[in-house]
Amino acid sequence: MVAIITIVEEEYVAVRARGDFNELAGDSPYLRRNEVAPGVYDMILARTVDRSNGPCGDLVRTIAEQFRPEFIILSGIAGGVGREGVGLGDVVVADHVDWYEMRKMAEGKDVIRKMALDHPSLYLRETIFQRVKHQEKWLARIGMERPVEGKPQVFEGNLIAGDKILGDGENEYQRMILDEFDKALAVDMESYGLARGVYNARSARHYNLNYLVVRGISDLVNAAGNNDQRKQWRDYAAATAAAFSLSVADEIVAICK
User: Fold this and answer.
1) Against a cut of 0.85, is the pTM above it?
2) Which of 44, 161, 186, 200 is the most buried (most CB within 10 A)?
3) In degrees rounded to 5, what are phi and psi of residue 167?
4) What's the pLDDT tens digit per position in 152-175?
């Protein structure tokens, strides 16, 4: 089973509209696609009750306990950092996730601290992601007009997560974070919750949960007029993420039959 997780309404609607999710999965609030055996589904779609890492981690725990999916995909929008050619409407798939919020501030120093977490699945990145990226069939699933002429590109790289929306290029804290994580391509508020939730779920001896983060770029966090960018691009960015995520999910289901 593949579980697709979304956060905000635009992300949920984007996946549902492209994925034929119409019926509830058992007595849960989540939508499902095909029932392959009694109470067993090839794919489910869920949305967190709120934004940020905590609710995302809670949802991972609930889904893992109730459905035991083999794969989880987080689909939605994120802010781009403006590196390596990543632009508005592009897709970023995380190769590793960092949480930037846990810090020690003492004696004039600001030093990051870390907690254990799982990183995105090597199998999904090296096999499924690459197949979907190079075939480019996912582009046909976007199904909406791009705000400006062009074609979305797909990138793989570091995604950083916190509990703040970064969107002010003049903000001292934001500049410090982006300087510290100088390879980051995108920033969101949920990927750490997912990574930590998967880490905790994998404490069971025979449960090998794999995950992938797929983010459509809705704004550039250092750009002037960041909020206006987000309003213009968020629906399209959610659509590109949904199209790519569903193509990955379909590939997984086809291979695992």
Assistant:
1) yes
2) 186
3) -165, 25
4) 999 999 999 999 989 999 999 999
